[in-house]
Amino acid sequence: MTTLDVTSVRLSECALAADAHLAVGRTGTPTIHYCFRGTGFILLDDDAPIRLAPHTLVIIPPGRVMTIAATPHLATLRSVDKHNHYDFTLGSLQRHTVGHGAPSLVLACGPFQANYGPALDLFASLATPVVEKFDVHDQLDQVMTYAMAELTAQNVGEGAMSAALLKLVLLALLRRCLVSTNRWVERFSILSDPPIARAFAAMTSRPATPHTVHSLAHAVGLSRSAFMARFSAAFGESPMSLLRCVRMRHAADLLAANALSIDQVALNAGYQSRSSFTRTFRRYYDSDPSEYRAKAQRASSDRATPTEDAIEESDAA
């Protein structure tokens, strides 16, 4: 991974007291969030809450409004205003505290840009958050602490040093492609072939676009035959087969979020016909979209009700 380059990074230490929440404004670049201690959630309007715990690393796509909440239970998120009028700009302050009392959730947060090779902005077209849990043996706490200290020191070259340190963090994340079962790893499994990486990024960032083999090949500067061969070598299936999978996963996420009608979900997944969308969705998830949405809502409701053991464990902490 010698061609990975972090071209910019700004970090803030965000410390939230118990039950406090922090509204974060949009940025034109992706943002990284690393939890040092405590538990909480990152809330996005159209995604499921992202649980934060020590050593959790999250990358949020560009242009997303979010709220960071310092609460251990999903049930308490109903009272969080995700449209707070004050939006903090990540990286604008070295340390930002929210709420009264000792911090119960501490994170390093900030915008960054990382390139793979001369032209591929690795996370610019990220469509869904990347979430990965590390542990103390990975030593990311120390690396992120050093990166923030370098930015705080304001010495000559501290930007380059912080970028180099963040590169170590991203390398640790990308190495998870080899072992992680999380869905985000698919995005980075083809870094050795930048044209194919760009084609895959186009699929995942714009699933509603009427992509064809010809349009994708043309967009990345390959002949149709060369594109088909290299794409199949990278993924083990054809571009259109993988595109259907990407669209169905996108549709499943939208259905679980319960913010759009079935017809709107179909359009966002690249289908003009609801019946065609429903048939394809049923093949992938063994249920029609309305059934899938109902199951997702029931599961979300069950998770929102903490068990007695979970409450006792939280109180003991």
TrEMBL record:
<dbReference type="Pfam" id="PF12833">
    <property type="entry name" value="HTH_18"/>
</dbReference>
<dbReference type="Pfam" id="PF12852">
    <property type="entry name" value="Cupin_6"/>
</dbReference>
<feature type="domain" description="HTH araC/xylS-type">
    <location>
        <begin position="197"/>
        <end position="295"/>
    </location>
</feature>
<dbReference type="InterPro" id="IPR020449">
    <property type="entry name" value="Tscrpt_reg_AraC-type_HTH"/>
</dbReference>
<protein>
    <recommendedName>
        <fullName>HTH araC/xylS-type domain-containing protein</fullName>
    </recommendedName>
</protein>
<dbReference type="InterPro" id="IPR018060">
    <property type="entry name" value="HTH_AraC"/>
</dbReference>
<dbReference type="InterPro" id="IPR009057">
    <property type="entry name" value="Homeodomain-like_sf"/>
</dbReference>
<keyword id="KW-0238">DNA-binding</keyword>
<keyword id="KW-0804">Transcription</keyword>
<keyword id="KW-0805">Transcription regulation</keyword>
<dbReference type="InterPro" id="IPR050204">
    <property type="entry name" value="AraC_XylS_family_regulators"/>
</dbReference>
<dbReference type="GO" id="GO:0043565">
    <property type="term" value="F:sequence-specific DNA binding"/>
</dbReference>
<dbReference type="GO" id="GO:0003700">
    <property type="term" value="F:DNA-binding transcription factor activity"/>
</dbReference>
<feature type="region of interest" description="Disordered">
    <location>
        <begin position="290"/>
        <end position="317"/>
    </location>
</feature>
<dbReference type="InterPro" id="IPR032783">
    <property type="entry name" value="AraC_lig"/>
</dbReference>
